[in-house]
Amino acid sequence: MVWKPFLFLIMTAFFPTTIWDGDSDGRNSDDGSLSAPDWRDWEQLLFEMISVQDYILNQNIDLGTRIINFGPTPEASLQFGAGVIKFDLAESGSNEFRIGDGTNYVNIGSTGIVTFGGTGYLDMDTRPIYFGPTPEASLTYGSSILELNLAESGTNEFRVGDSTNYVNFASNGAMTLAGTAKRKISSRPILDAIDQVSHAKPTQVEYGVYKLYSFPIYSSDNEELFFTNRVPYAWDGASDIEVFVLVALSGAEDIGDTFKMQLSWESIKETGVLSTATHDVDVEQIILTSRVAQYTEYDLRFVLDYNIHGGSDDIQPGDVIGMRLRRIASSGTEVDNEILFVDVISDVVTDKVFGTWTRS
To answer: Which of 309, 310, 319 is closest to 360 using CA atoms?
Structure first.
């Protein structure tokens, strides 16, 4: 064989006596004197190395391209390249990569979804999970707080929901709402009690724990109430403002009779000029079946058009809204008795928590 002279040059190594005694064929051990292995032993060593290589190749392990394939198809492969160790699972079937035992484990499916079984869980300790190469965001757990940090540069946001309806956290911590995530907040207009006391109108009616105001049809006689209300800074700035006036019947009425209330209003900027102009919103109510008894309540809804002025004069967060409530003649058969004012509240749609404070 052509490689035997080469083998002869390297036969200066010695085998342990437990493997070969130096004077027997192959690797038989006896009590003979020791000497260096001959070419037959080196040939056997090469044959064994070749057998190992054949075994590796038959197991579909390709060390040359640094890929380890599992299964004849293969069902999975392990590869190292470009600084990344990648474990690929064939998407057909239920191929999974599992670490743990038969009960407690972390499992990665062929679609990349991570699941946990038994006592398995994601333990981040104080080590963050980074998103993006910069990174743009990181998720960290420590001191019993789960903290999501967004890079303040750009428009990085954390959003929960779908593309239309969601709650959104900006990098400065501000929370906003969109779509069906928006909610309403209520504020209570302030009654100008001094005006009512000075005129003793509308007449006050005491009923249980309630102090009510009795409204006849207005006839330039001070039978009216005045209110002021601040537009909340959490208002979305793009929806009408609702005012709900709760009234009650001062006496029993007939089904089908009517009464009408009028809410006149105007808004003023924090640095604006007061105006005598008003916008009148009328609500007429018909007496309903089974709601004819004395002290029966009706909740009247008045809608204030936020962009009735147009442009920069539209209602803005922080604006002051002045309101005047009167009872006026209805278009139908008028109720026999006066109408009692019980309460008033204002609702706005909010798309943020609190809002930016802009008072000058």
So the answer is: 319
pLDDT tens digits for range 75-93: 677 776 666 667 676 655 5
How many independent structural domains does the chain possess? Answer: 3
pLDDT digits (tens, 9 = 90+) for 131-162: 666 666 777 766 666 677 766 555 667 777 77
Asked whether residue 273 falls in the same domain as residue 345, the answer is yes
How do residues 21-47 score in pLDDT, each as one tens digit? Answer: 555 555 555 555 555 566 666 677 777
In a domain, 243, yes or no: yes
Give strand pairing partners of 248: 297, 340
For the beta carbon of residue 229, count every other beta carbon within 10 angstroms. 23
More confident residue, 57 or 298: 298
* 209/340 same-domain check: yes
Considering the domain architecture, whether residues 198 and 344 belong to the same structural domain is answered as yes
List C-alpha distances in Å: 358 to 215, 236, 269, 339, 352: 38, 15, 11, 40, 15
pTM check: above 0.70: no
Domain of residue 32 covers 4-58
Distances (CA, A) of 22 to 25, 32, 35, 54: 8, 7, 4, 30
Calculated CA dihedral for residues 321, 327, 331, 334, nearest 10 degrees: 160
d(CA 217, CA 11): 124
Specify whether 190 is located in the same domain as 157: no
Q: Are residues 228 and 249 in the same domain?
A: yes
User: Where is the domain boundary, 139, 157, 181?
Assistant: 181
Q: Using DSSP, state whether 334 is helix, strand or coil.
A: strand
% residues pLDDT > 70 (the chain): 66
Q: 105: pLDDT confidence band, cut at 50, 70 and 90? A: confident
> Do residue 166 and residue 267 come from a single domain?
no
